[in-house]
Amino acid sequence: MLQTLLQAGLNLISTSPCPLCSGEADPQGERGPCQACRERLELPPGGLGGKTPLPWHGLGSYEGVYRQLLLNQRRTPKGAVLRGLARALAPGVPGSLQRCILVSIPSWKRQGNPLPGLVAHHLSAEPLGAPTLPLLQRSRPTLGQHHLDRQLRLSNQDGAFRFHPAQRPALLRLKRHGIWLVDDILTTGATALAAATALEHAGLEVKGLLCLAKTPFRSPEPGRTKAPD
User: Fold this and answer.
1) Fewest CB within 10 A of the end CB: N or C in the chain?
2) pLDDT in tens, 15-70
3) 35: Cβ–Cβ under 8 A, 6 or more apart, which residues?
4) Edge to edge, what strands does the sheet with 205-214 contain?
5) Region 138-153: what's the mean pLDDT?
6) Among candidates 56, 119, 54, 128, which has minimal Cα distance to 97?
7) CA–centroid distance for 137 within its chain
8) Is 151 helix (H, G, I), strand (E, B) or coil?
9) 60-69 long-range CB contacts below 8 Å, 24 or more apart?
10) What's the average model confidence in pLDDT over 216-228?
């Protein structure tokens, strides 16, 4: 009887409920979404990934229930939810986060999208432990990209970032580490590519982009030309 009570107490201490539904903890001990939530959000095992226009790794496709969840988090971020998503994202990072630095992609708006910085913050927390640094600065404002095709997005983001001047004294030390950019949504990759170019011009090695979701490719409407993601 006593042994049963002790084991129950240990289970409460050593496991955490699902950060999305507060139900049973992930059996893998990642403290990420439980299996039922992963299925509901249609998060594929191991996440998503690709190499165009730069290497990237994401947690799921930006559609359906998962899209609505991320839209809600953009409006009203919840630390437990974003921490759980970050913990689910980290294990699939190619080559792990060891000896890497996380750089969130900044918005040019004063009240910009909070998710990239928050995701980077949670990825930097123990036991993941990759540091996050503000190495990027917006060099000019850009247009909203929701209705722009791929070519217009590339033009819109060209030269939109620069290496943060305040970080120049640490540049030699930073060159010893790989850089992972962090954003919430990957669509065409124009923003990530512009950010990577700014860091690479400073002599840093950009390994790729980490994101919560990838916008799925959709065929253009009849009579309308649209470049693929």
Assistant:
1) N
2) 678 999 988 766 555 568 999 999 999 999 999 999 999 999 999 999 999 999 99
3) 26, 27
4) 48-50, 56-61, 205-214, 178-186, 100-104
5) 67
6) 128
7) 18
8) helix
9) 60/212, 60/213, 60/214, 61/213, 61/214, 61/215, 61/216, 62/185, 62/213, 62/214, 62/215, 62/216, 63/216, 65/40, 65/41, 66/41, 66/42, 66/213, 67/213, 69/20, 69/41
10) 53
Task: Return the residue matching tokens 């954003």.
Answer: 183
Give the containing element (helix H, strand E) for 101.
Answer: strand 100-104
Written as six digits, the tokens of 179 are 């850089």
Look up residue 62 and give its amino acid. Answer: Y
pLDDT above 70 for 123: yes
Taking the CA atoms of residue 148, residue 49, residue 102 and residue 73 in that order, the dihedral angle to the nearest 10 degrees is 60
Q: Say what the pLDDT of residue 8 is.
A: 45
What pTM did the predictor assign? 0.83
Task: Give me the chain's average pLDDT, please.
Answer: 83
Query: What confidence tens digit (pLDDT) does each residue in 147-196 have?
Result: 666 676 656 666 679 999 999 999 999 999 999 999 999 998 989 999 99
Q: Which residues have CB under 8 Å from 226's CB, separation 6+?
A: 149, 150, 220
Distances from the Cα of 184 to the Cαs of 19, 57, 73, 78, in angstroms?
18, 11, 10, 14
Domain ranges, ordered by start, for the chain: 29-213
Task: Indicate the SS3 state at residue 59.
Answer: strand
Structure tokens at 79: 């630390």
| One CATH from 3.30.300, 2.60.40, 3.40.50, 2.60.120 for 29-213 | 3.40.50
The secondary structure element, H or E, covering residue 68 is: helix 64-75
